[in-house]
């Protein structure tokens, strides 16, 4: 599953006569470079065929909970994770009731449950049904429940219904649905005009052809920040020393040494708006590197070290209006040392974490950080790194 330039949309189609209008929506989204992932209930296939939907979206339509076409070991979770927005159009009274009640027994309700589990991304439901069903107290109560939970409901239009009666229940026009979806996406993409660089992983400073001075940085925090920035519309270049799954960024560049990282940043920094320096850069490197492997039989050795370039401080000197975020991994005096680095290196923000704790930080899926700028500090309590990254990006977005 690859993020497109515009983004990823899940479209759920349920069993109503208005199902054919979903085809027009898919055409519009695809035309505007969105990647559309279609999901259908069994009832929806009585109105339009999965083949038609697949041809329009260029994606295999999911019609079964255990459909192997959903990529990944837990496909519905991974599909929900990669999507920027989920749209159900048309939404029957049945699917509305299921989502409001937490029932997940078909592809649309199952993926809805996974997608809206954390309430971070827009979820749009477009009801379409007979006016009696729409005004049924149970349906209205379910819609109220969903609205209270933050779901965007596009009310049906009044007009002639398939049964020959007239009333409120017709699917909203394709143009109205499209405009609501685009507006919802724009509101979540507060970084869409930002060209960001994120660095991740540790440096390796060679001692001889096989040994290096390095650190325990896994790069997971940097990758999580890059993923969150991309989700919020930024153009993201990830500069990494580790091999982790592509978080869907625009470009990945690789480095090993601090000098490699400096060279890449020197070429890319002038064109960025935001630098998040999550990489753990060695403060020292061997003054001389042996061109031959050192052996135990050679006896004891002494390695003379010299400082590496302070990359982030040097970049900050010629920053212009760029926003620069640093990281401070500390084992003691965390806040005071982070504040000192914030000032001495000329940063806009610094993220401090306690590396003496075994339940967060290096190698862990979890972290806990303190976000500091010149005016305040905010603690983001222990959580998965992807959620910590969201909190960090929230703080950046409030200042940039």
Task: Characterize the structure shown.
This protein is an alpha/beta fold. 33% of the residues lie in helices and 24% in strands. Strands 12-11-8-13-16-17-18-19 form an eight-stranded mixed sheet, with helices on both faces. It is elongated and about 95 Å long. The protein starts with 6 loop residues before the first strand and ends with a helix.
Please describe the structure with a list of short key phrases separated by commas or semicolons.
33% helix; Rossmann fold; 24% strand; single chain
Q: Please provide the count of β strands.
A: 19
Distance between the termini: 30 Å
Q: What is the overall silhouette?
A: elongated
Fraction of residues in β-strands: 15-25%
Average of pLDDT: 90
Question: Do you know the CATH topology of the largest domain?
Answer: Rossmann fold
Q: Which structural class matches the secondary elements? A: alpha/beta
Query: How many structural domains does the protein architecture include?
Result: 2
Largest sheet at a glance? 8 strands, mixed
Helix content: 25-40%
At CATH level 2, the architecture of the largest domain is 3-Layer(aba) Sandwich
Major beta sheet, strand line-up: 12-11-8-13-16-17-18-19
CATH class of the largest domain: Alpha Beta
| Poorly predicted residue ranges | none
What is the fourth-level CATH superfamily of the largest domain?
A: CoaB-like
The whole-angstrom Rg is 26 Å
Query: How large is the count of helical segments?
Result: 13
């Amino acid at each position: 599953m690859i993020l497109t330039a515009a983004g990823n949309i899940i479209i759920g189609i349920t069993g109503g006569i208005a199902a054919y209008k979903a085809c027009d929506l898919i055409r519009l989204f695809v035309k505007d470079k969105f990647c559309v992932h279609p999901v259908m209930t069994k009832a929806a296939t009585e109105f339009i065929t999965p083949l038609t939907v697949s041809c329009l979206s260029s994606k295999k339509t999911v019609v079964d909970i255990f459909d192997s076409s959903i990529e990944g070991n837990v496909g519905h979770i991974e599909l929900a994770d990669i999507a920027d927005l989920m749209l159900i159009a048309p939404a029957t009274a049945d699917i509305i009731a299921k989502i409001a009640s937490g029932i997940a027994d078909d592809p649309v309700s199952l993926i809805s449950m996974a997608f809206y589990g954390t309430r971070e991304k827009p979820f749009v439901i477009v009801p379409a049904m007979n006016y009696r069903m729409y005004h049924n107290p149970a349906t209205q109560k379910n819609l109220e429940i969903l609205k209270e939970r933050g779901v965007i409901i596009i009310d049906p239009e009044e007009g002639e219904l398939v049964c020959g009666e007239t009333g409120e229940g017709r699917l909203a026009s394709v143009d109205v649905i499209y405009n609501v979806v685009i507006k919802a996406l724009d509101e979540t993409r507060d970084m869409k005009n930002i060209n960001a660089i994120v660095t991740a992983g540790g440096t390796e400073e060679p001692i001889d052809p096989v040994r290096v001075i390095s650190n325990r940085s896994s790069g997971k925090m940097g990758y999580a920040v890059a993923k969150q920035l991309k989700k919020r519309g930024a153009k993201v270049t990830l500069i990494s020393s580790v091999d982790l799954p592509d978080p869907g960024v625009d470009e990945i560049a690789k480095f090993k040494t601090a000098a490699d990282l400096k060279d890449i940043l020197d070429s890319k920094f002038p064109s960025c708006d935001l630098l998040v320096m999550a990489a753990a850069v060695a403060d020292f490197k061997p003054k001389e590197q042996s061109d031959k492997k050192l052996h135990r039989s050679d006896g004891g050795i002494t390695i003379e070290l010299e400082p590496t370039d302070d990359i982030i401080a040097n970049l900050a000197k010629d920053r212009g209006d760029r926003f620069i975020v640093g990281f401070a991994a500390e084992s003691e005096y965390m806040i005071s040392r982070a504040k000192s680095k914030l000032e001495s290196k000329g940063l806009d923000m610094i993220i401090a974490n306690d590396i003496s704790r075994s339940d967060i930080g290096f190698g862990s899926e979890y972290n806990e950080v303190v976000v500091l700028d010149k005016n305040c500090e905010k603690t983001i309590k222990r959580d998965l790194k992807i959620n910590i990254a969201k909190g960090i990006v929230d703080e950046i977005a409030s200042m940039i």
